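Reply to dn_fold:

You asked what the input looked like. This is it:
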Amino acid sequence: VAVVAVVAALNVSLSEGTDNGLALTPAMGYNTWNDFRCNNINAKNIMAVADKMTMLNLQSFGYEYLNVDDCWATSRNSTNKRLIPDPQAFPNGMKAVADYVHSKGLKFGIYTDRGTKTCAGRPASYGYEGVDAQTFADWGVDYLKEDSCNASQNHTVAFEEYGAMRDALNATGRHIYFSLCGWNSWYSPVGWSLGNSWRIAGDCNAWPSVYNAIRTNENLYNFSRPGGWNDPDMLVGSSPEAAVHNTPAQARTQFSLWSIMAAPLLIGSNMLNLSSYDLETYTNKEVIAIDQDKLGVQGRLVYNSCPSFTLEDIKQGKKAVGADEAVPPCQQIWFKPLSSGDVAVNMVNFDAFKSVKITCDGSCIKAIGLSGTVDVRDVWAHKDLGSFQSFSAAVPAGGASTTLIFSQA
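and this is what came back:
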């Protein structure tokens, strides 16, 4: 009821929408935050990342955005109020960096905040939406992430402030992907009217925070559509050189589930020293195809042994697990209908210690929209497994998963 009231109150501004024609499939790219945090955010490293993405030919897999997160701005020009990049880190300005990124066949993304300061205490966009949007457009920015630190968490105020940046971006005439970073599920019902994606939970760092994002997003599948996507946060790789990392199995499960959930795929592993395992993970064309499927349906659960976690729990400020709590030893089966008529399936085992046999039996097959006998393909083994009326997989412990394509036989 509260969300309906807010939407009704803002119906004029919300109806305008993000008029950019982007994000018909979820965004793919790289973001500096999970890799660098605030350390060494400079032109040299951003250009080196662009070189590495090109060397790895990531563009051919769909990774088009190179996004600079927080810690690039230091002040505003006293006359025209434009943001000033750190002069030591970006001695030739931000447009020169954007031009270099573009020269590599990539698109360039940047970061701001709807509050009075960014999360790292840098200049933010509150009250400067018009000048900042035009500045970004003039620099050649293609993607804007706007955070929510040092800002009101009142729903109406938050929607109005994000709406102000949306309108400012639209007014520039440049098509700029708009990523809302408000870290709350209450953006989902109205997110489509404000941006191209919206964060639905807190940052993904260690595995419990990834689990929390998964459990939150399982409740929000009705709000995602081509042009606007629920965003459970950026990918966390397995490289210990990055600012944050998880186990290889957990990194691969996150990538698989993000694809089932039709989520943006923004690499956060250590790009300059990307491991062969993470590279194999992020360049699996079969899994990417699930994420980028033109039907644009967010996956949902067909089986769940995890503790109950509902929208009402989320509204009350609860989390599926706390940051220092263990992920419960439970299992889930997710499914996502595809434009081909096939169904993508993910079986995930959150048990930290035991391998578990997970089964999609006849009733499960019927619940995902198929019937009788199905042909099953393992998209990580790149192997057809045969025809089944009930399919079981032994899924290893520690957050591992199995990702499959079910086809009507």
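The radius of gyration is 21 Å.
Hope that clears it up.
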